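Supplementary Methods S3. Input chains for the assembly prediction are listed below.
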Amino acid sequence: MDETVGIVAREAGKSFGQQIFIVDDDDAQRDSLVWLLESHGHVVRAFSGARDFLAVWNGNPAGCLLLDVRMPGMSGPELFEELTRRCSALPVIFITGHGDVAMAVTALKKGAADFIEKPFSSDEVLKIVNHCLTRESEERAHRCARADTARRLGQLTRRERQVLDLIIAGKLNKQIAGDLDISIKTVEVHRARVMEKMGVSSLASLIRRIVSARL
Amino acid sequence: MDETVGIVAREAGKSFGQQIFIVDDDDAQRDSLVWLLESHGHVVRAFSGARDFLAVWNGNPAGCLLLDVRMPGMSGPELFEELTRRCSALPVIFITGHGDVAMAVTALKKGAADFIEKPFSSDEVLKIVNHCLTRESEERAHRCARADTARRLGQLTRRERQVLDLIIAGKLNKQIAGDLDISIKTVEVHRARVMEKMGVSSLASLIRRIVSARL
DNA sequence: GATAAAATCAGCATTTTCCCGAAGCGGGGT
DNA sequence: ACCCCGCTTCGGGAAAATGCTGATTTTATC
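Predicted structure tokens for the full assembly:
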């Protein structure tokens, strides 16, 4: 059965490794969601409280989080705040039983992926979760690319970084040499090393990397 | 008094030309909003119905729209849909009297700027409107830049466009010549014309323009 | 068919970039 | 003190790009 789940997940086109976390104090509701999602090939991990989830949460898992709003102890919005504070990129789908427009608006404006009311249909949840996972997968790719760019930027020396900035600014080696008060030859060396360290072979790729990483 | 309004608006640091549109069938509510916003130096234009607003709306004014949800004839969400269909970039702030989480979530996910419930405080509205205008101003700058880039891209010939694509891909003139099966000299001509038409003088600027415009 | 616009190519001088090599300099470790 | 390594600094020659003048062919448009 476990194997089947994996196969189904792959057949559904989901990137392997994505898990759906559920945090809800209502046992029936939680089990219902677990059953629904697992029967559709998702890997699910359910928790009855925010603390339990935080204890397991190891930084930045792939997937999304179905989060109940009203819970004893730490509430849904509080957990969401905490995740935001910890720079989590895990998409959060709020689930609430008591319609509260202000809370929904606040949550969404703070970056929640969605906000659904009970009762909800199976199709609704599945659709939202799938959409969320798809987006998360893309987002993840972007984050990885950005992280890689940041890492590479980090291993540039001061001089190389200065040269890079001027390259991005569109200056010629001659102008860069003038600005930094060094010879053109030296600029060329730094430039070559920048290209090497950034893992690109053309100026176009270099600019693309830097500009893309800024957004 | 009109002059004072203008001065106040400038002193408040708002980009000139921004107007706040209000569409609400409730006369008292509408007048109240008009008074509140005008007394804070905003230029306001109020309408009692969606049709009236659409008749005046000329494509893409600067500012934002305070839109009541429930109205006879065309409703708030319907007007919002229509604006979206017409590729409007005018930020929409929904105002509702009857809390409806699903509607709020839908509206926000479709790109509404905010969704506030009656009754609301003056401070709340002012804060939201100001935030909205600030964002809109920045967005506008980006849109202008993008529009300019698109316009320039539009006046490139087919060949120039092909060459541009290969330049962006980071290829050398020699490689471009090979790909398009033309001589290097010709590539150089196209390349120069691309730079000229795109209004840039360095490869870095060119790449930045293109990449920025894609987002 | 005339006219204009686009696409094609060449030569030549200049500038810029790329690749290989090399040397001074300063900190860390043995 | 000595050596190694990374950072920074250069030079020379090859390759590539740029700017300019000029030209022919193809295509679009009226």
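The first helix of chain B runs from residue 2 to 11. Residues 172-174, 184, 188, 191-192 of chain B lie near DNA strand D (CB under 10 Å from a C1').
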